[in-house]
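Task: complex structure prediction.
Instruction: return structure tokens for all chains below.
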Amino acid sequence: MSILYDEAIDGPLATFAKTDVLSDLQQHIPTLTLLHREEDLRPFECDGLAAYRVLPMLVAMPATLDEVQSLLKRCHALGVAVVTRGAGTGLSGGALPLERGVLLVMSRFQHIISIDPDARTARLQPGVRNLAISEAAAPYGLYYAPDPSSQIACSIGGNVAENAGGVHCLKYGLTVHNVMRVDILTVEGEPMTLGADALDAPGFDLLALINGSEGMLGVITEITVKLLPQPEVAKVLMASFDDVEKAGQAVGNIIAAGIIPGGLEMMDKLAIQAAEDFVQAGYPLEAEAILLCELDGVLADVDDDCDTVRGVLEKAGATDIRQARDDAERAVFWSGRKNAFPAVGRLSPDYYCMDGTIPRRELPHVLNDIAALSRESGLRIANVFHAGDGNMHPLILFDANREGELALAEEVGGKILELCVAAGGSITGEHGVGREKINQMCSQFNGDEITLFHAIKAAFDPQGLLNPGKNIPTLARCAEFGAMHVHNNELAHPDIPRF
Amino acid sequence: MTESQITPPNHDIASRLCEQVKEAYQQRAPLRIVGGNTRAFYGRPVDAAPLDVAEHRGIVHYDPVELIVTARAGTPLDELEAVLDDSGQMLGFEPPRFGPQSTLGGAVATGMAGPRRPWAGATRDFVLGTRVITQQGDLLRFGGEVMKNVAGYDMSRLMTGAQGTLGVLADVSLKVLPQPPARASLRLALPLDKALARLAELGRRPLPVTAAVWHDGALCLRLEGGHSSVEATRQELGGEPLEAGFWEALRDLSHRFFHLSPGQALWRLSLPPNTPPLTLGDSQEPVLYDWASCQRFIKTTLDGDTLRRACQAAGGHATCYTPAAAGGAEEPFTPLNPVVEKYHRRLKEQLDTRGIFNPGRLYAAF
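Output:
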């Protein structure tokens, strides 16, 4: 079933003449940059999920918060939908435009407002790039911990909207764990502060709620993040295994030994070969799986932990263990993992990146089932895995120019996510639901749970004008998709309109 | 009689609780959610029929290798932590307990965290999933037993600290942490200004500090981590060893500082990192600086408005820990900004349409 917006099941959108909306906005907000010609709109037709493209009705590129506020007030008054976009690197289509909506682009807000080295915080505009935060904090010996692989390009506003992760989540947490305060404009254009400069705020934890809310509850205008002291040292071990299951077991054993590595990543044979071919990281081509284990902290502890981890890896049957001699070699070890997506991209005209999470103990059986799906479909699948926290990124290789292959890849992807749910996991660990996994939400949640999500949305945006169609499917979509959990043979709340 | 014989058996009464909630919804009869009833002082009194969740207890699933535990809300914290301790693990947010009957549900519902909070994270940072009884008596599951999960809105973290005003916590899944291999505590005699400057300076270094409190002319630090770093830091900082049980007493508010004189109320001030001592009129009231000065307790006869104005001006807020009946403030929590309050009321109206869940516990208006 297509993920593109379908008013019959995703709910109606108000109809307007584009020219009317354009002239209304031009009249009310004369300073606002508005793009409306097809050739100007074209670059905004998709985000990082490039397989899906929709030309927005209009693109607004405000330069001041007053403009953002005025835009929201006007759109609210008119009943026009608003889709907010940051750097456009999201992989789940969270910023996929609407044909009958305004795309609000926040990328001009790139100012680092302040860094307080004693409080260890940074105040940021939403368009500040993730990596730019750590670069600006570096002179103070501080850094911002969450590091999604798109960190050179992705922006902090989008990181909050998606609750972005990265390779260091097990030890340092996701975005939600590293943000202290978020300022938003509500759908009505009212400014509101969630969280505080203090470590907590009175009332409900709306700060936690806004993290990962995918632009559905408000427009993020400012973020205060927590900065951490840079670890004194980081060391990385690379272990090879002749069997994926042994590598999975080793991951559990490292954690059972009481060690929380800074990063703990696994790659399977196809991913190893692709990465080695691309960046020559010195990966062992004959291995079935490799583990990269990074230990960071105070030098003396890191040395102790390296010894412990080496012992665990040997016992788990690693065929080879190498420790990076210095930071340069450490960067080389990581380069293969950090470039795994583009490396796999060289093996195939197209690939489709999944983002399921599972309890780690389920890894061998989920990998076996993924291999079976690969055999059945004839599509190759490479696996890279944030092994420490159970976040899998299977990459499905396909060729969109071959009739039916995109649909097949999506079908295989959907089945992989359902495997994750069945194993007790989640359809998305860090990329978000967006539009991409809208159907699989119906596998993870039952009708009552989805109804409660709509109630949360209704508290913030009763008319459903902020990013409609993303994150939470309508019950009608779930019924159509056929994956709704049905309890006692009845659909929950039959009295509720089904979209 | 052995311990296991006197401990009530593990018990799943979720379906009975759902029935009770459903009935309350139908009758529009408010409920006061009660576990061990040790945190009643924290928040406004709720005048309603009790919904007793203490019987809903026991660990549902514990997997030390996955670093997760799922337990029913009525599980006593002591019992839960004893089981984690057997596997060399712990709750990272160091929840306070106010008696052996303090439960996991109460700890998560209030979101109170102990001395480790600035370094390890808040209660909600460890909450991975919940099963929640919603207004119509449905038992719904949000989040789960995986570390990363961004599907749907984060209902589990929204429930944390909401004090049962949005639904009933039935089960909670938490991330647990390995206990640190080494631990040391020390006391440095330092005046307040020097202690605060020292904390700011230490905070910029990757040191194994996991608690820092200034009180009565001394800065007390807890170091936890690898043997090598704890020992090196202890030697660098010097000081004297600290009395045993200090951190537990601080966590549970049973340290002698928390004994009030007649007329005094206990307030908690939550302030941004590195906030200088507040000027509170001519007051020379005793203050304890916890959480590297981000959480301060003051024993005072000052009125709430004075305290709140001072905190608000510094970017923080103040909470009264002394119940109104014992001379504390009528409104224990800082009033919300009008826009924020509007969205609180709307959320409450959506998730608790008939106002049956702990009405008035946080604020009179909802």
